[in-house]
Task: structure prediction
Amino acid sequence: MNWFNIAIIKTAISMTIALLVCFSVEIAWANSQAPKDTPSSNMLIHIEKSTADTVEEWEVTYTLTTPAKTLAFVRNPDTSRTTRWLAQDSDIEIVFDDAKHQEIVRSKSGKSFSTVSFALTPTYKHLGKDYAPFSPFSDGGNAFHSGRLFACANTCTEEDNKWQLTLNIPSDEHIVLNGKVTKNSVSWTDINDGRIVYVGKQVPIITNDVVALIDPGLPESIKVSLEEDIPNMMAFFSHSLNPLKGEKPILLASYANIDDHSTQGGTLPNQIFMHWNRQDLNKQADNSSFVNQTLWFFAHEVAHLYQPGNTGGVSENEEQSWLHEGNADYFAAIAMNFLYEDANSYVESRITRAFESCSEGLAQTTLAQAYKNGHFNLYYSCGMIMHRAIDSVVQQKTLGEESLFTVWKRLQKAVNSGMPPGTATFLTLLEPYNAPELIKAINNATSDDALKAIQGIETLYQFPE
Result:
């Protein structure tokens, strides 16, 4: 596939987004996600970026209103804070609590504290099923995930869901937060999973539809794809589901040309971001398999942007991740087939591999336990097979008048009207199609019985297209 000759999007939708146009940068204080008069977790999180002899230095300080014995972090995908965060007080340390499966800050002497500071390591770190703490840009800029910094005094509860943050940066750089650009310092209140914040000198491209920060060091073919394919995919999903509302979506694409082979992307509310941490990107960009993988990667992440709300607006817990991850993968398949005529064989091979991977995985663990047993990939592979079957049945039952997109638009409406997200609500939306065998197969595939689960997936895979 030639990156420069992507098939023109079909007449069912029109191209409405062009990233590379003349821009005017809006200098303004970034909006917050929650009122600033409701501080949370009884602390202020202060982030400071400075440069010393061209070396980038980042520091985070937690100031508590009431002294505490420990700090507990909200997100604990691994133990990397224990080595990547350097306490600025010799009496303070970060350790991993095996019983609680989380990293905690404590005083070595057992004293309470009201202020602690840490020097951060502003490099990319792959975190399993979580967002990287930093995503460096090749021109010296950096994007960080605010949710990585969320912590609570002593322990976190469900009520701890708001954090007050302040960020200070060097005078020759700027901050991009909530699609707005500001200098020197900014304060905001974060909620839920947090957001990605950019700090650097690159001027974002701002159009009527999107705010984009695309790493200038990326291979030209990938930059062209980001500039053309992402908008095409957004137009496709906007037409097939519902247009995005509220703030403009933000696209961040960063690149570190280092000895590694890691690529990661993700979405947060109104944000889509991706990072390449590898030294062979120029060579890989000419490989047709890599091109297709990258397009799939883009389509999967864009699909997440158009699902109802964030992950919490789709699934109630980790074991239901087949809903949002499997759906995004099958939506990626649909988008690839629709937008790129020569991608059909690649899409079919992905579906076949997904079925094989799902079947093999279910022989080792059920979907209910997959996230606990290190098999999160099953939510992608099994979920795609399940959504493929749903699409097939819905189209067959309605003679092509409705599809999987119809079901998901109804899910968006149901969640927005107050229905609980998750499997129960989703399955009720399938009942009008009078497809008991489909629902039975889905229930089997998601059951705790390994034999039933495998039989369920085999049944779903065999549903006619």
About this structure: The first strand starts at residue 43 and ends at 52.
